[in-house]
């Protein structure tokens, strides 16, 4: 809901504010570009105004809520509101609250949440909250009995007074937080057709890292459904980052999977992970990426015991980022639903099919290397060099 006449989106960021002025300016520029791209991608008319601390999106009343929703899909944004802009004159703010109350407050409880950035103003936030509350009360009391609830109101009238303008709003929509995408270095995202890896990729994007998605084609053990799902999740992720390349590197891995299944029993999943990591490392060198992100979590699978993660990680000298390391499956599923990468179809394909009946949970590097086919990592490097770029 927005106040009548609202035509602007007030965007709030969080961690960007903790930066030095130079870094903050740099990050605010990136955020403005990303906001513009999101609006364009969704055909929402709007212009982004770069302002210190609070970027604004100028649009029209018809599109203001869609623009607010788009802004809250931008990484780095903590929240956004559809706002009506007024001067910093207290009387004008109170009159705006009165009008908003007449048009939008039709019962239940209310509160005023007032803040001011400029402490030199001739009134305090408390003055605004108190006098605003009275103005709202008097605007509606002939229609119904208003009630104030400061803890859990049905409707919150927000007022934010900045140096030159004041903004009045009725709703605060939460964004992902984090840092603007592109403010950190890119990483290779190993994406499978599973639930976890897209969530992990989203999490690292949230911290500002663009992803270079890589899918390992598992041949007969993967299949078109598996790959299609991986591609679909990348498409969904790219909706959050329309100004970033979303093409996927498809790394050929079918032959290696056949080889591992035919030659190894207990440690085969671990050698397959080593193949993944080394291929990702080679790809990273190709595209100038600086790390690898996976959807692994401690103990979620036999290949993800702490010991096995330690052993398999030795296949690369690049850092492997595992944002879901300590998450429970239920939490990950909830996150996948939230960001739109969850689908109900749990395709029985991919690594599940490669897994042996008795999997290694307690590997040691030396015996694993002995059991592993010779030249596995060289094959991974070659596969990464042969990876083709595909549209998700
Ligand atoms: N075919 C693949 N291509 C690229 N990366 C993969 C592939 N399979 C697995 N991975 C990576 O290895 C991690 C651990 O593999 P795991 O066997 O748990 O995956 P999964 O269950 O198939 O998928 P997810 O972890 O996405 O639910 C994944 O989170 C993903 O980052």
Automatic annotation (TrEMBL):
The record's annotation in SMART domains points to: THUMP (SM00981)
**SUPFAM superfamilies in UniProt:** Adenine nucleotide alpha hydrolases-like, THUMP domain-like
Positions bound to ATP: 190-191, 273, 295, 304
Q: Where in the cell is it found?
A: Cytoplasm
Q: Which PANTHER family match?
A: TRNA SULFURTRANSFERASE
Q: Which domain of life is it from?
A: Archaea
Q: What does this protein do?
A: Catalyzes the ATP-dependent transfer of a sulfur to tRNA to produce 4-thiouridine in position 8 of tRNAs, which functions as a near-UV photosensor. Also catalyzes the transfer of sulfur to the sulfur carrier protein ThiS, forming ThiS-thiocarboxylate. This is a step in the synthesis of thiazole, in the thiamine biosynthesis pathway. The sulfur is donated as persulfide by IscS.
TM region positions:
none
Q: Which family does it belong to?
A: Belongs to the ThiI family.
Q: Enumerate the spans annotated as THUMP domain.
A: 65-172
Name of protein: Probable tRNA sulfurtransferase
Source organism per entry reads Natrarchaeobius halalkaliphilus
Write down the EC number. 2.8.1.4
The UniProt entry lists the main location of this chain as cytoplasm
Reactions performed catalytically:
[ThiI sulfur-carrier protein]-S-sulfanyl-L-cysteine + a uridine in tRNA + 2 reduced [2Fe-2S]-[ferredoxin] + ATP + H(+) = [ThiI sulfur-carrier protein]-L-cysteine + a 4-thiouridine in tRNA + 2 oxidized [2Fe-2S]-[ferredoxin] + AMP + diphosphate; [ThiS sulfur-carrier protein]-C-terminal Gly-Gly-AMP + S-sulfanyl-L-cysteinyl-[cysteine desulfurase] + AH2 = [ThiS sulfur-carrier protein]-C-terminal-Gly-aminoethanethioate + L-cysteinyl-[cysteine desulfurase] + A + AMP + 2 H(+)
Q: Which GO terms describe its biological process?
A: thiamine biosynthetic process; thiamine diphosphate biosynthetic process; thiazole biosynthetic process; tRNA 4-thiouridine biosynthesis
Q: In which pathway does it act?
A: Cofactor biosynthesis; thiamine diphosphate biosynthesis
Name the keywords, alphabetized: ATP-binding, Cytoplasm, Nucleotide-binding, RNA-binding, Thiamine biosynthesis, Transferase, tRNA-binding
Q: Which GO molecular function terms does the record list?
A: ATP binding; CCA tRNA nucleotidyltransferase activity; tRNA binding; tRNA-uracil-4 sulfurtransferase activity
GO CC annotation terms, alphabetical: cytosol
